[in-house]
Amino acid sequence: MSLPIAQLPSLDLVRGFVAVGRRMSITAAAQDLCVTQSAVSRQVLALEEQLGVRLLVRSYRAVAFTTAGERLFRVVDLAIQQLQEVSEVLKVEGRSRPVTVTASIGLTAFWLLLRLSRLRKRHPNLDVRVAANDKLRAPALCRRLDARAAPSKPRPHLPPVTSTNVPVT
């Protein structure tokens, strides 16, 4: 039978223990966690107290796992790795990437900016950034853009414009 969640060891204590176990050094673990060596040592001692078993054998400038410590480390290190992986995935999925629209200064001033407020009303979560530039001629620069507003006259030296239709009229 599993312990109730309220009786599980604190995640902060477990994180300190895992950091020590990954580096086999309290000093290095403290640096990884951006806390003092003393704080990490107290975290491990508090975890040992909560569990009622020694997890580490401490000697001058070295630590080693006890049998119980090694057993705990294998389980919690895997759990922390999974937590790190899913946290990273969720952070990346949660970020919205801004859309940058680049146009000449004239086109931006006399056409694009007049329509931007309607676009923002229709798509309030869209992060739109406008870059006005009359020197946008380099094909390599054009390939890095999300969108480019250009005159209808063909310009053979520029790459073709591909777009996703977002109504702005």
Key features?
169 residues, 2 domains, mainly alpha, disordered C terminus, Arc Repressor Mutant, subunit A
- N-to-C SSE string, H for helix and E for strand: HHHEEHEHEHE
Average pLDDT confidence is 82
Full CATH superfamily name of the largest domain: Winged helix-like DNA-binding domain superfamily/Winged helix DNA-binding domain
How many angstroms separate the termini?
A: 63 Å
User: Which bin fits the share of residues in helices?
Assistant: 40-55%
Low-confidence stretches: 161-167
Kindly estimate the percentage of residues that lie in beta strands according to DSSP.
5-15%
Number of DSSP helical runs: 6
Q: Sketch the major β-sheet.
A: 3 strands, parallel
Enter the CATH topology name of the largest domain. Answer: Arc Repressor Mutant, subunit A
Report the top-level CATH class of the largest domain: Mainly Alpha
Given the helix and strand composition, which structural class is it?
mainly alpha
Shape: elongated
Number of domain units: 2
The second-level CATH architecture of the largest domain is: Orthogonal Bundle
Count of DSSP strands? 5
Strand order of the largest sheet: 4-3-5
